[in-house]
Fold this sequence. Notes:
lipid metabolism; AB_hydrolase_fold; 2 domains; globular; PAF_acetylhydro_eukaryote; 1-alkyl-2-acetylglycerophosphocholine esterase activity; Rossmann fold; two-stranded antiparallel ribbon; hydrolase
Amino acid sequence: DPVSLPRLGRGSMPGMLALPPGQGPHQVGCTDVMVGHTRQGLFLRLFYPCLPRAGATEPLWIPRSEYCGGMADATLGRRWCSVLLSIAIGSCKVPVSWNGPFKPRSSGYPLIIFSHGLGAFRTLYSSICSELASWGFVVAALEHRDRSAATTYFRTAEPGTEEWIPFQRVPQGQKEFYFRNKQVHQRARECVRALRLFQGIAGGRSVPNILHQDWDLSVLKGNLDLTKVAVMGHSFGGVTAVLALVKEPSFRCAVALDAWMFPLENVLYPEVPKPVLFINTEKFQTPESIARMKRLSSRNSQTRIVTVLGTVHEDQTDLAFLPGKLFSLIFGRRGTLDPHKALAITTRAALAFLQRHLKLEEEFGRWDELLEGVGGSVVADAPFCRSHL
Length: 389
């Protein structure tokens, strides 16, 4: 059954956020990587197949209290909610092994570069990233520095000092398109820089992680298959993934979760050379946005557009696993589809698509029907049908 309900997750506080562990055959490890001492460097969270380790610690879902403040400001527009968020979700953990030992693979793992949405940051897609890692991918979840993250920071060359980059709304008097278009180009360049980072490591370059994690990036050398690289993202990150295909030939395909197509200039649509899988939620997309996706699908017969019925925009983030009352308080109405089922559908459709276009020797083809919009909760190319769930 392509959408049987997975094992349920666990959380550090009963009744708060309980993220599901990956359902695939691999255990999942996770580490943070920061490269360079300026905002032109890179910051990402890496999810990867790992070896089991007794007494493994689990990382915090919200890595630092500053992110609660950033979320309260960016998502809710209410800075005072920061303390409430901190109390409610500040101690929640991600069910992965923090700095766990990397599981070697002589044929190399395929790589996914993941781009977050507006007002999000590198850890808010832990459920989807750890699910993909559990099926044998290395996933690099970026934290963008274009001021679209809830907040982010870099460490300067002066020991012990940090510079924070807060979220920025569209400045008054500026057209939103031009502001967002500049951001999406910066984000796509960051995706390409992330790929260059891994290409460098694979080529034997020594890359110092300035966060000084107890985890050596050189273990990736010989364990990545960089002929099999995809780019993926949610919302603003979805359109970032589409643009990254234009900028970088090494990306073989893109998976765009509920892509916010608005910031991409029209002249680029004919330039998107590779297949894209658009996985939309039922409530977010507009007719204009779908029309833009269809323009891309007319250019590439392998591009697919599917809608997961009974889902809302936030269902493709970890926030879907907040308890109902807390979710509704923050975002209003939630989807009718169980979030575990929504995650299973989304990742399995992505896996089937990645198998097809990265030429993987796995059995993800058993979920191919999801790409054609067959399977109850998934419809092809139909953004406005009502949920029957």
